[in-house]
Amino acid sequence: MNKRDSEILAGALMRKGAVLVDDWQDADVVLFNTCAVRKHAEDRVFSILGLIAKKTRDRGENRIFGLLGCMAQEWREKAFRKAPYLDVVCGPNDLFSLVENFDSILEKKQKLCFVDSEKRVDEFYSNGAFFSTSDEHAFVIIMEGCNNFCTYCIVPYVRGRERSRPSKDILKEIKILIDQGKKSFTLLGQNVNSYAGDMSFIELLDKASNIDGVQELSFVTSHPKDASLELFDLMAKKENIKKYLHLPFQSGSNRILKLMNRGYTIERYKELVLAYKEKVRSGYLSTDVIVGFPSETEEDFEQTKQVLEEIDFDCAYIFKYSPRPYSKAYEMKDDVPIREKERRHKVLLDMVTS
Hints:
pyruvate-formate lyase- activating enzyme, alpha/beta, 4-stranded parallel sheet
């Protein structure tokens, strides 16, 4: 999603006369579009931005620095205190405000912070939607935000509630991108299969797959509570829908899943996986797992190990739990020692890479 936001922003700014360069050292404006899902990612962003700003000062150069995306929404004005070299802070729902005020940003008369409005989707997309960094592939956002409020997750607080784009706009965008030479498309959403526009996600996926010129169609990220047998039937039926499903299970313990507010049991998750593998032959299956969630015991961890042993995932992304501001779990005691988180992380990594 961040990559697509960056493309749309770049396209909108280029329409205003900006030029996209390959090396930050050739740029007058350096904008970091960020993710706030893990603290480690935040620390890395501030570290890299700090190094670049120091190099700029040491060389006597005058550059404009911006923090964009979910970190900007989380930190707001506090980001200027954390990183005094920043000139602009802009949340993911306000990127159109950055485009509107770009001339003021270039003047560098004052620090600007845009974090309060809802994304003006129609205007923002019409100003930059059709720029893509790939010659043949394009990302297409179909919905934004999240209503699930998983207790470990900051996304609903920085991306906002779910907002689905009208299907006619999505299908029109795909057709325009085909005219530009695109052949492969990925439909995007924080919970892509919870799309709730003027039709269901399955209907939208079907209509998109029927457009002449769509050679390959995929989607990310799916939530197990919104996955269905009808979705798997469509994937199996349509040759141009990629046989790929990213379906995070996060924990093999029902106790932890309930604490995470995931909305399903591990038994239900296994049923979905079995149905997917039966219907979508030779389908690729990936997942996400979190270790060290508050109160996770060795028994809980063993249940997660058991799921990884039982289900033959093609790929699994393993994360150490990281407390995130605003989330419900932020109020819980982070009681799994870091060394134990690291041990459990390594155990699962070794399992999925061996």
